[in-house]
TrEMBL record:
This is Methionyl-tRNA formyltransferase. Residues 202-300 form the Formyl transferase C-terminal domain. Keywords: Protein biosynthesis, Transferase. It comes from Arthrobacter yangruifuii. NCBIfam families: fmt.
Length: 309
């Protein structure tokens, strides 16, 4: 079976590896163009492109699936395309280029959390269970019939990065199994059933903490937007990032956004919310690196006037 693999970020690499390990004939890779990274803005291949180069696979770099990209895909004569977080829509005219279509690995239990950020939204919503689905790509947003699913428990301390890392590996196995069934003529996709929820891409504004919200909702938002785009608030007019926090139901006397510091061996920074306290475990003040919340608290142990906005 000749397979075109389409993907861009690191979470797509396990799927590429799984298809190679399963013995599929991966004839090429479609990925986003090299992007400037770091302070020096050095053009850097995507993680999928870098892995494809290590494997000696042809690489098609395209910001979108336009006529040029479609021609390059057609030249590879794939039987099927496997797509994992490529980062752009596949237009209708490209869907029939692979003989058996495009099979998408999506990190949710469809039709829950259709869209670009399913894991982030699942964490922010407080879902207990999420998972991954393989489905036949259509022109609609994640609307195609489903080949297979797997489930994954969402742990209270999970960030979206933690959860996505686990799903990237279990989902890679699911994708390889799905392509194997398609190759054997044994795959029968089933129309999606259930309540539809949407998971649009998160903006930096979506990552801002609203201290009027209950502590549990704030912690879920912090976890959901970690590592990207990263939770933040403002202090003294500058952006202040928050990497992790834990609930402090024993603290009920702080106004929303008000910070209380303790020093010494039990140093902590606890913030008031719309319900009870939230202890900051990882913070990044403006102009500094991410640090333990306790270290930040020790430096400000005598301050009583810190209020987040």
């Amino acid at each position: 079976m000749r397979v075109l693999f389409a993907g861009t970020p690191a979470v797509a690499v396990p799927s590429l590896n799984a298809l190679i390990d399963a013995g599929f004939d991966v004839v090429g890779v479609l990925t986003r163009p090299d992007a400037p990274l770091g302070r020096k803005k050095v053009l850097t291949p995507s993680p999928v492109a870098a892995r494809a180069q290590e494997l000696g696979l042809p690489v098609i770099r395209a910001a979108k699936v336009d006529d040029e990209a479609i021609a390059a895909i057609a030249a590879l004569d794939p039987d099927v395309a496997a797509i994992v977080a490529y980062g752009a829509l596949v237009p209708a005219r490209a869907l029939t280029v692979p003989k058996q279509g495009w099979i998408n690995l999506h990190f949710s239990l469809l039709p829950a959390w259709r869209g670009a950020a399913p894991v982030q939204h699942a964490v922010m919503a407080g879902d207990d269970i999420t998972g991954a689905s393989t489905f036949l790509l259509e022109t609609g947003l994640d609307t195609g019939p489903v080949f297979g699913t797997l489930t994954e428990t969402v742990r209270p301390e999970d960030t979206s990065g933690d959860l996505l890392e686990r799903l990237s590996h279990s989902g890679a196995v699911l994708l390889a199994q799905t392509l194997g069934a398609v190759d054997a003529g044994a795959a029968v996709p089933v129309p999606q059933q259930g309540d539809i929820t949407l998971a649009p891409k998160l903006s930096i504004d979506d990552a801002r903490v609203d201290w009027q919200q209950p502590a549990l909702a704030i912690r879920r938002r912090i976890n959901g937007v970690t590592p990207e785009p990263g939770a933040w608030t403002t202090w003294d007019g500058a952006r202040f990032k928050i990497g992790a926090a834990k609930l402090r139901s024993d603290v009920t006397d702080l106004a929303p956004g008000q910070v209380r510091f303790t020093g010494g061996a039990d140093a902590a920074a606890v913030v008031g919310t719309g319900s009870h306290g939230l202890e900051l475990l990882r913070v990044q003040p403006a102009g500094k690196k991410m640090m333990p919340g306790a270290d930040w608290a020790r430096g400000l142990a005598n301050r009583e006037d810190v209020v987040f906005e």
